[in-house]
Amino acid sequence: xxxxxxxxxxxxxxxxxxxxxxxxxxxxxxxxxxxxxxxxxxxxxxxxxxxxxxxxxxxxxxxxxxxxxxxxxxxxxxxxxxxxxxxxxxxxxxxxxxxxxxxxxx
Length: 106
Prior knowledge:
The protein has strands at about 10-15, 30-35, 40-45, 55, 70-75, 80-85, 95-100, 100-105. By secondary structure, the protein is mainly beta.
């Protein structure tokens, strides 16, 4: 399990209905797809370096649906995704993203 500090350098918020989340996300970018009802999905590349694409369904803003994660876009442009993310295939990484900074869990 990697322990070096990792920070996602960019946040790309996609609001155009015709745009698509990347199949191979840039390793330094958090992608957030928004719909008319709020955040719909987030995509990142696994921060451990394995290259795995991680797609997370997000709760719409102010809604109580069944999605597992929520994303907060802060005034400074950084993103926090809650709760933590644990990959169940591949590398098995467990981490959280708080204001673009990866925090590792062991």
